[in-house]
Design goal:
single chain, alpha/beta, Endonuclease, Chain A, 27 strands
Length: 723
């Protein structure tokens, strides 16, 4: 092997630019002519929502670094200032494509399907205009608060992500005595579009349409003169801002973490403005006023050629009827090992149970806690909660268990970004019910997914454990792909107890039986597993690594994968989002193949396969290969040891590597392309898993020793985009 400097900047992709490529892949789905129109709207909405969070967190973090004078380059050699400039450059092109897709492709197709979105109030028919004016008078007007800016009224706080309308107004000649002579020239005014009202307003239809809608801000613009009766409105344009939403929490000095987070949440509305969106062709004087008062640099201003904030399209996706414009709904299937009404503890006692969501229902996980809450033999329940649903049945079951006298310990991660308020509410409810609520270790987020039930049985105390790759959220479990297991393994039960003792009492175990826990042990374990494959390859043995995760941006792990590739290890990676690794570098990453699957479900499971000279080690868990997961979070990776479950997990990886309909392959030039499937059977992994679950076909026992898993990596000549 030649000596290679694996720290060379040219071997790595910038994390933020890689994420933008992920959002681009979602946009490709919105542009795919083979996807039903309402599904395409959903994907476009997701790209907008993703971009909002990206700016509020990632770009905001880079801006903080610039403000602090931090100049250290990232793993790709870019300092924070260079990253921000590159992000704005790429994002402005991305936004132009978003709105080209919306205006030139999706809107005409919606019209053909009988759905009208009125783009401006001038397009309303007389009947529609009359309806809209009455709706404004009766519903909207009482809620609005117009705010003028002058010497006595300073520029108001513009709330993060709120949609607003800015206007330039001049005083009428015949003003009342109260206003006469106050201001002679142009004045700035603003009004917030009320978020308490539906943004998508249904209006009477005209010939040729089954449904017609207008956006709330268009109704307000049409009637904006009603808000400034003593003024003439010269112009009015919608705008929206993104603020820094990263919470600066000093846990060492916070005597009460819950109160500290509540205090910091209020400050989100005051964070530095990171991005300003304005309607295209906005009046220059009005834009200048916004720039000056919001302190926004020119490069952070985005002129939008359509409705600002496309997340409203998710509401349109959910309108009743029009089922032919969506994918047929999929109902998660029963797990073949657990029938409704079964005693779940009896089922687990017969052997480990594998769960594959959303292809199989999440109900057994809910039942696990619900049955434990009412089972007289259960003594204690312990669980970690990172994100839960709005009306979580798991929370309700934990509360019932505590009220029934059981020992219930719940770790609620208050620092789960954008779920902080929700988790504070749940933490208080659980405490009121008598649960022991803990908030984890100082300085670390607890991201692990583990639930432990301690049960007294005839032959003594027995521990039942659920371990998973996804959150205990019954709502997202219908749309996120995740894996989990139920087990009553004594060794894993002991480890589970040790995990909760560590979280609640700072009791660090000397050794672990089966579980691998971050931040102390996990990086070392992955390094050892990769090193072992390198050793086998150097000895001339077959060596293979196949991993599936959400993100790959840890420089040390990537460098170790490069070393493995150079040694001859075959490496296949299914990485949904960020991937800072580059493929096809001669002598460095020739043997590494990366694909990303973007489908109707959000790929969320983490699976790690190591060939190990034919012994085949498989792990699943909550951690991606990112510095935060390996070094700054409490994560759990668990082994898959049951032969039948190992076969199922290998089958999942096998099918995903064969996906040529929803997979994008990372090419040596850093771009992602769909594979060329000519001459090959069309494979959509998500569709196949749905079909297998409906057939209860979980018996696939493909042996990887018997075949080579080489997907088709050639670039397809068929464009997934609409022209």
């Amino acid at each position: 092997m030649m000596k290679v400097d694996y720290n060379n900047y040219k071997y790595y992709e910038n994390r933020e630019l890689s994420w933008l490529k992920f959002n681009q892949r979602i946009l490709f789905e919105a542009r795919d002519k083979n996807i039903p129109i309402l599904e395409r709207l959903k994907f476009l909405s997701i790209t907008a929502s993703n971009l909002d969070e990206f700016f509020m967190v990632r770009v905001a973090s880079l801006k903080d670094m610039v403000n602090a004078g931090y100049k250290k380059p990232d793993l790709a050699g870019m300092n924070p200032e260079e990253q921000i400039a590159a992000i704005h450059d790429v994002t402005k092109k991305f936004v132009a494509t978003q709105y080209s897709t919306y205006n030139r492709s999706l809107i005409p197709l919606l019209n053909q399907a009988g759905i009208q979105i009125v783009s401006c109030h001038e397009e309303l028919s007389e009947r529609q205009a009359t309806y809209v004016d009455r709706y404004f008078e009766e519903t909207i007007y009482p809620v609005l608060t117009p705010l003028a800016v002058d010497a006595a009224r300073p520029f108001p706080l513009i709330r993060n992500k709120s949609l607003n309308i800015a206007a330039l107004i001049t005083q009428k000649e015949k003003s009342t005595h109260l206003f006469k002579g106050k201001n002679k020239g142009l004045e700035f005014a603003t009004v917030q579009v009320p978020s308490v009202l539906p943004r998508l307003v249904s209006i009477p239809t005209e010939s040729g349409y089954k449904e017609s809608f207008i956006l709330l801000e268009q109704i307000i613009e049409k009637n904006i003169d009603r808000l400034f009766l003593n003024y003439n409105v010269q112009c009015a344009f919608p705008y929206r801002i993104m603020r820094n939403a990263d919470l600066p929490i000093d846990e060492d000095d916070a005597s009460d973490l819950l109160k500290e987070i509540q205090k910091q949440l209020k400050r989100r509305q005051w964070g530095e403005v990171i991005r300003l969106e304005v309607e295209e062709h906005v009046d220059p004087s009005l834009l200048s006023t916004l720039r000056h008062n919001l302190n926004v640099p020119k490069e952070a201003i985005y002129e939008i050629s359509g409705p600002i904030d496309l997340t409203f399209l998710m509401k349109l996706y959910g309108i009743p009827g029009f089922e032919e414009l969506r994918y047929p709904p999929y109902t998660p299937q029963l797990n073949p090992r657990i029938a409704p009404g079964d005693n779940i503890f009896d089922c687990i006692s017969k052997g480990d149970i594998f769960l594959h969501h959303p292809y199989e229902t999440f109900d057994p996980v809910v039942e696990f806690i619900a049955q434990a809450a009412k089972d007289p033999g259960v003594l204690a329940i312990k669980q970690t909660l990172y994100r839960v649903s709005g009306h979580s049945p798991i929370i309700a079951a934990l509360a019932r268990a505590a009220e029934g006298g059981k020992q219930v310990t719940v770790l609620v991660e208050l620092k789960a970004r954008f779920d902080e308020e929700n988790n504070i509410v749940w933490a208080k409810k659980l405490e009121q019910a008598g649960c022991h609520v803990i908030y984890g270790l100082v300085g670390l987020k607890t991201h692990s997914k583990i639930a432990l039930v301690v049960r007294r049985e005839e032959d003594g105390i027995k521990r039942y454990v659920h371990l998973g790759t996804g959150n205990y959220n019954d709502s997202t479990a219908k749309t996120y792909t995740d894996c989990g297991i139920f087990t009553c393994s004594e060794l894993i039960g002991e480890d589970a107890t040790a995990v909760f003792n560590m979280l609640s009492g700072y009791s660090e175990p000397a050794v672990w039986n089966k579980l691998i826990v971050a931040p102390i042990w996990l990086r070392k374990k992955f390094n050892q597993l990769i090193e072992r494959e390198i050793k086998h390859a150097m000895e001339g043995k077959e060596a293979r690594i196949v991993c599936k995760m959400n993100s790959l941006c840890d420089q040390k792990i990537i460098a170790k994968l490069y070393e493995a590739s150079a040694a001859g290890v075959e490496i296949y990676l299914v990485v949904r989002g960020i991937c800072c690794l580059k493929t096809g570098i001669p002598g460095v990453s020739d043997n590494i193949h990366v694909s990303s699957i973007v489908g109707n479900f959000l790929e969320h499971s983490r699976i790690f396969y190591f060939y190990n000279d034919g012994l085949e080690d498989i792990y699943m868990g909550s951690a991606d290969w990112m510095p935060r997961n390996l070094d700054r979070r409490v994560e759990i990776i668990f082994p898959v040891e049951d032969d039948a479950i190992k076969s199922r997990v290998k089958h999942i990886l096998d099918v995903e590597l064969q996906d040529n309909l929803k997979a994008y392959h990372l090419m040596p030039d850093g771009e992602y392309h769909r594979p060329d499937r000519r001459g090959h059977r069309a494979v959509s992994s998500q569709k196949q898993f749905c079909e297998e679950a409906m057939k209860k076909d979980t018996s696939n026992t493909t042996h990887w020793q018997e075949r080579k898993f080489i997907p088709i990596w050639a670039v397809s000549e068929e464009s997934e985009e609409e022209t």
